Description:
With 146 residues, this protein is an alpha+beta fold. The protein contains 3 helices and 5 strands; from the N terminus they run E-E-H-E-E-E-H-H.
Amino acid sequence: QERRQPTYTAAMVQARVDPATGDVIVEKITAAVDCGIVVNPDGVRAQYESGLLFGLSTALKEHGTVSRGRFDQSNFDSYRLLRMDEVPDVEVHVVESTEPPTGVGEPPVTVVAPALANAIFAATGARVRHLPFLPKRVRAALQGKP
């Protein structure tokens, strides 16, 4: 059986943290991807950018709570997602390659939360270890709580 070539990906996040509220504002995501031979560079960038933003939404906002066996969030008024006005600048570098093409949909989702956790640490000296990085969790980390 032929072994598939993986997609190599990396990201850096530039963010600000309001220590009083715990709000995290992501200003920029810079990422690189080696996905083998690229047939459509614009398509790769579009897919990759959307994956980064999905990862950012997951890292900052998305979570559900359950009461009496049912989700408390029944629509998007109570289930928070990344909004258009919260989208940071995104820069994607596509590495030239001669390897067989690979996927670009899911790999960028995986690198945003660790990069954002490192950005929060760089800005504050506090580690936030549980997703999503809600303001109350960031405040707790800033106060030295687990």
